[in-house]
UniProtKB/TrEMBL annotation:
InterPro entries in alphabetical order: DNA/RNA_pol_sf (IPR043502), RT_RNaseH_2 (IPR041577)
Organism in which the protein naturally occurs: Phytophthora cactorum
Sections of the chain in a coiled coil: none
Protein name as catalogued: Reverse transcriptase/retrotransposon-derived protein RNase H-like domain-containing protein
Domain Reverse transcriptase/retrotransposon-derived protein RNase H-like, chain residue ranges per copy: 3-72
Pfam families reported in the protein's UniProt record: RT_RNaseH_2
Record PANTHER family: ENZYMATIC POLYPROTEIN-RELATED (PTHR34072), REVERSE TRANSCRIPTASE_RETROTRANSPOSON-DERIVED PROTEIN RNASE H-LIKE DOMAIN-CONTAINING PROTEIN (PTHR34072:SF56)
Length: 99
């Protein structure tokens, strides 16, 4: 599916013990969630030892960097300033501690 910049984007990311990945999704005309772009990579040697919540935040950071073209187009061309990022439970713990 090609990106439709008139519809909202949804970012779904996943973290495993050895890799991170994400999918940029949009709902099609029938209301089904469809993939627009996908990205993944294995952890580097030093990243293997990170705690799971650090791996999850690293995944979120990389997702936003890799897919920034989609978000920048929405902000600068359409004036929108919001998008949704869906995370797992592993990111809640450190965010609650530091907030």
């Amino acid at each position: 599916m090609r990106a439709d910049h008139s519809k909202p984007f949804h970012v779904v990311r996943d973290v495993s013990a050895f890799a991170i990945g994400c999918a940029l999704m949009q709902f099609d005309d029938e209301g089904r969630k469809r993939g627009v772009s996908y990205w993944s990579r294995q952890f580097k040697a030093v990243e293997w030892n990170y705690p799971i919540y650090d791996k999850a935040l690293l995944a979120m950071r990389n997702v936003l960097i890799k897919l920034r073209v989609y978000f920048l187009l929405r902000v600068y061309l359409l004036g929108e300033q919001t998008f949704a990022v869906y995370t797992g439970r592993e990111t809640r713990r450190p965010l609650l501690i530091f907030s």
